[in-house]
Amino acid sequence: MSEDLPSELDVKLLNAKYVEYKLAAEREEEESLKETLFDEEDYDGAEDYDEEDDDDDDYIDNYEPQMKQSPNRLLKLVLRSIFKLRKHWLLTSLGISILVVNCFIWSSAWNISHPSTQIVSNVSTFGDITKSIHNLQWQINELNNRQKSKFQDLRNYIDLKMDEVSSKFKKVDQQVDDIKRSNEALLSQLNALSLDNIQVELSKIPVIIDDDKNIQLLPEFKDYLQSYIKSSLSSNEVQRQFQLNLQGFISDYTQEIIHSKVGFMNREEILKLISLQFQENKRKLIDEIKQLTTRSLRPKEVPEKLVSSSGYVKQDKVDYAQSSNGARIINYLSSKTFKPRTKSKSWLLSVFSASSPTTNNHNANGYENQDPDNWDDVNPTSPFIVLTQNDGFWKTEDINGTIGIKFLEPIYMDEFLYEHKRVFNSALLTSCPKVLSICVQSDDDAYLQEHTPFANEQRGDKYTKVLELHYDLNDDAIQHAEVPSWLKKVLIKSMIVKIDGNYGNDFFTSLYKFHIHGITRFDVLSVEKLMQNTEISEAVKRGFRTTVNSFGSDERT
């Protein structure tokens, strides 16, 4: 301890001396710097040197010529500025901080007045990245939780199964122990058996044992069998039971040979077979008669069938679906005509034919002008052919196409018929329409909407669906749709016939002829004059009494 104290004092003395020497060196350095900065020989011409405010203004202004003369003056000025900054470091740092804050405030204000899309995009990108990181973190946590739950479920499942297996093994062990105990009991019983015990009880066993100790026969059964045989032989039952009936045996044996070898049948079997065959033929005849009865025509239908099959139909009503009675095609409501692709014309001929003035008589839909007086000029590919007497079909490229028909004047429709001529042409037969939907235009749309059963199947704002015609290609060529009584009281201006499918043609659907019968408003007004005319027979008037009353009636129900 005595040795350590002098050493510590020596260290402290050395430190104190080092501090004194350092302070003395700093003072000398400051004094030398001051002498360098404030050398009076350099200010011989300075009469207005400002000693009170320590400012450099007078120094620079008064001694500028001298600084130019001596190059060391500039160095002294720099050193003097550094010294002042070092002496007043607190004020200097405060000024620099204020300057930095002002610059920051100015730059923030400028950014607010001039926003930068790049900064905003960077900020939004950073926000998206942050959201993505949070989302990824959430997904990782979710996966971790799911993994933990699955692992826990698996662990519980494995524990459950292990418990079940363990319980089963315990049961197996218990059963094995039971089997061992039973085996031990049996072995103990077997070991307890001996020949002495068997010999003692041998007289009680009801069997015969030979020299080789094999069981031969039960003595009781042997006695029973001997007594039964003796009793059977002593009676005549055996003779009566086994006595052969020679005549019956021969008859049965003969029938067996005939049936199996020759196939001969006796009279009873033949009569039975004939009766069965008669009943079968009778049943077939009855079924055939029933079918013929159901397919045969009623007496009232025979004349109509004969007339329709003869190809002659009496036309006693005006057909308003003919162009001769003023019917026209509504082009913008009709589908496009089917035009087969041909390779007969080159592209050059098609250009010249398209620019030829003779082919510019088509309307907007490509149909020719509807001129019923010049039937020779009617284009077979135009839908207008349906309204003429020309023997041709109109083909539309739309399988479920439409055709619009406008009447010359509104009519009260009495019948709607469609005719598809039977021709020896598979394409025209397979393109026959299956279902025709009739949509009409009238001034009384509210009345139509109220009575039509197809209120949910309208076509546009002006046309209302009122009828459907299901055309059967296996039936007559002309088939009609039943016009209800409420529809006969409505004036129809025009109609659209919509096709719903055909009989298998994938390229086009064809239409032949429509027949629309009825009367106009003018005809209704002239009925009264016809009924009062005495020159017209009652036979003619009778037809108007029965039919015309339903047309144009003001009483609508």
Short description:
With 557 residues, the chain is α+β, with helices and mostly antiparallel strands.
Protein described:
With 557 residues, the chain is an alpha+beta fold. The chain has four domains: 13-93, no CATH class; 125-193; 198-240, no CATH class; 318-341 and 360-550, Galactose-binding domain-like (Jelly Rolls). Helices cover 51% and strands 12% of the residues. The chain contains 18 helices and nine strands. It has helices at residues 4-37, 57-62, 64-69, 72-87, 89-113, 117-192, 195-200, 219-234, 237-241, 246-262, 267-295, 301-309, 347-354, 426-430, 445-451, 521-525, 527-532, 538-547, and strands at 328-330, 394-396, 402-419, 433-441, 463-470, 478-481, 491-502, 509-511, 513-520. Strands 1, 3, 4, 5, 6, 7 and 9 form a seven-stranded antiparallel sheet that branches. Strands 2-8 form a two-stranded antiparallel sheet. Helix 1 (4-37) packs across helix 4 (72-87). It is flat, with a radius of gyration of 64 Å. The relative contact order is 0.05. Residues 326-521 form the SUN domain. It comes from Cyberlindnera jadinii (strain ATCC 18201 / CBS 1600 / BCRC 20928 / JCM 3617 / NBRC 0987 / NRRL Y-1542). GO terms for molecular function: protein-membrane adaptor activity. Its main location: membrane. It is found in: Membrane.
